[in-house]
Amino acid sequence: MRRPLLFVVPLVALIAGCSPDPSPTTDPSPSVTASPSPAGPDYTAWAAGRSTPVADPLYPAYGHADVDVLHYGLDLSWVPETKVLTGQATLRLRAASDLTAVKLDFSQAFTLDGVTLNGAAVTATIADNDLSVPGTVAKDAFATLVVKYHGTPTTVPMPSHRTDSEPLGLTVTKDGGLWTMQEPYGASTWYPSNDQPSDKALYDIAVTVPEGWAAVATGVAKPQEGTTFRYAAADPVATYLTTLAVGKYQKETAEGPRGTPLTYWFRQGTDDKLLPVIRKSPQLLGWLEQRFGAYPYASGGVVMVPSRSAMETAQMITMGTPDYGTTKQAEIAKYFEDDLLHEYAHHWFGNTVGPTGWKDLWLNEGWATYVQHLYSNQRDKITAKQWEDWARGVDSRLRAKLGPPGNPKAENFAESNVYMCPALMLHQIHKQIGDDAFFALAREWAQQHRNTTQDRASFIAFVNKQTGKDFTALINTWLDSPTTPK
């Protein structure tokens, strides 16, 4: 996520993300045994989506640690005139413990049109934004869940006081368009999901829209079939990193480092002034690859939406047009470039290597923020000492207001302390080990932990092993201290 607006500072200050009744299906069935027989379907095609889900203590109402979704197959249709989304979600899943029902996060805004578990119709209900599907599944057994539904998407509040906070999930625009940003949760506003960061999954998404409209989603674009747009994510993705946007978009294609295909989706007449910056994507990715290794996905790009923020949605960054507090186009372009670099950096730090739980959001944002400042400091000829002097002042104010970054409060999601404070911590490690060792550490962190989730303990263990030094006390102090460490 783009750093909060607190960090958009002038260059002279050193420029630095009513509950409806449960809805039954029309063909009830009391229970289904979902454990596959030896002759049952082969789930090895989705093995890369296997995770070890854990309950998230910061947002316990979202996520189900006993379900591991391997693959989401989403077949969606959107009608702008009626603002109705019709969907069929096919989930391949593994039981992380013995189940008597499969439970997932799903919005009560939708009506269920039919649910099957391993091919048998069942009575499913939605209550308290949870989908409950009866059926026994033995631990480590696999099952296929198909959910058909329709309705008008509704968003949920964001638990934050950021100046650019907006409702989470799939947003419907006045002209019938769609766009979404959904960190820390909100994917469940448009498809049944295990809406927590520890459960990564593969995706196939198909979206049918009217003639003249375009649909943009997570993954590599597949051949368009009529007005149906198709995307496939072959690398596992956390739910908060999925995206969907529907609108009357224009499209540009480009080529990134090593021939990586890039696609830019923009609104004619609305995003024109920012296109020159978006077209810098190959250079931005090249700068990142030189320091952190190969871009970790098969494609990339940007989709513009009517938001005040931005999000590192996997393979297709979702960019809004924030109020940067200036009318000068050159300054707007510079700040937008910083945000774009920040979101691209997340593909190494946060996307392919994600947090196991939201308490470790610093692990995403600290890295992306520090990388962003390394880039902007180099571009703007700001020395490391100048930046640290400024950053320490910011860090001190943030700890006093929001507390230390390693223990964020649930009501203060993604506020500024989890950006700048851990970025300054990484700077301390950088100073101690030097450029070569630091960039080697960063590359190996992203490459060795590709497509996994990690936490503070695993990060400390990795840093100590990689450097041959004990940084345990330094890291814990910077994450837990109520004041800026010396």
UniProtKB/TrEMBL annotation:
Gene3D superfamilies: Neutral Protease Domain 2, tricorn interacting facor f3 domain
GO molecular function: aminopeptidase activity
Superkingdom of origin: Bacteria
InterPro entries: Aminopeptidase_N-like_N, Aminopeptidase_N-like_N_sf, Peptidase_M1, Peptidase_M1_aminopeptidases, Peptidase_M1_dom, Peptidase_M4/M1_CTD_sf
Cofactor(s) the record lists: Zn(2+)
Alphabetical list of PROSITE patterns matching this protein: PROKAR_LIPOPROTEIN
EC annotation from Swiss-Prot or TrEMBL: 3.4.11.2
Residue intervals of the Aminopeptidase N-like N-terminal domain: 71-241
Family: Belongs to the peptidase M1 family.
Keywords, comma-separated and alphabetical: Aminopeptidase, Hydrolase, Metal-binding, Metalloprotease, Protease, Zinc
SUPFAM superfamilies, alphabetized: Leukotriene A4 hydrolase N-terminal domain, Metalloproteases ('zincins'), catalytic domain
Residues covered by the Peptidase M1 membrane alanine aminopeptidase domain: 283-478
Protein name: Aminopeptidase N
Biased composition (Low complexity): 28-37
Region (Disordered): 19-38
Catalysed reactions, semicolon-separated: Release of an N-terminal amino acid, Xaa-|-Yaa- from a peptide, amide or arylamide. Xaa is preferably Ala, but may be most amino acids including Pro (slow action). When a terminal hydrophobic residue is followed by a prolyl residue, the two may be released as an intact Xaa-Pro dipeptide
Keyword Hydrolase: yes
Organism: Dactylosporangium cerinum
